[in-house]
Amino acid sequence: METENRHTAQYPVQPVHDPFEILIGEHGECLKYLQRMENAANYIKSNGFSFEAYSQIAETVRFVDTVMRQHDEKEEKYLFSLMDQHVPGAPQVMRNEHRELWIAFRQLLKTVEDIEEGRLHGTSIVELVESAQAVVEHLGEHIAKENEIVFPMAKQMLTKEEYNRLRESMEKLPILVS
Ligand SMILES: [Fe+2]
Fold first, then answer.
1. How far is the centre of ligand 1, averaged over its atoms, from the C-alpha of 64 (Å)?
2. CA distance 80 to 123
3. How far is the CA of 170 from the centre of ligand 1 (A)?
4. Domain spanning 19-171 has what CATH number?
5. What is the pLDDT of residues 101-146, one digit of tens each?
6. Ligand 1: distance of its center to the CA of 47 in Å?
7. Residue 124: is it exposed, middle or buried by C-beta count within 10 angstroms (0-12/13-18/19+)?
8. Ligand 1: centre distance to CA 53 (Å)
9. What 8-state DSSP symbol labels residue 65?
10. Residue ranges near ligand 1 (ion) with Cβ within 5 Å
11. How many Å separate Cα 169 from the centre of its chain?
12. What is the dihedral of CA 146, 148, 151, 155, to 10 degrees?
């Protein structure tokens, strides 16, 4: 049976782990966490602090701090480095966005740590809501840009040999989301 994807056509027997599908899958899982965090931040903004809503934020923070950190490293180390040889500007823009996102995330992480360690002060709840909303907005936009612009661009520009190298490198890495 023929497949539309020219990259996978030569591996009909084994299940193929397309690197873009893997990255898009990780984005999809992240978007689910971001949606829960957005709902929780809106709830706290309207109703005041709730432990249940706070827990949703804390779970998203843990996911981003572990899975998305490894995800970003993977993109930079294996994908952006290959793209650099074709269009150095585009991957550099995305690396810069990663840096900015981690700065915004650090603020949210600090607020969550303060709350967990009982260092509450007058503006903690406002900081929690605002820093959670900032991460939801910026990380959501970043993911959309990668899914809709960067990955399609990369698929076009990578040679077959580069694509195979990317796939082989990423296949050796642990699965981050199932
Ligand atoms: Fe990404």
1. 11
2. 39
3. 14
4. 1.20.120.520
5. 999 999 999 999 999 998 888 889 999 999 999 999 999 999 999 9
6. 33
7. middle
8. 26
9. I
10. 146
11. 19
12. -170
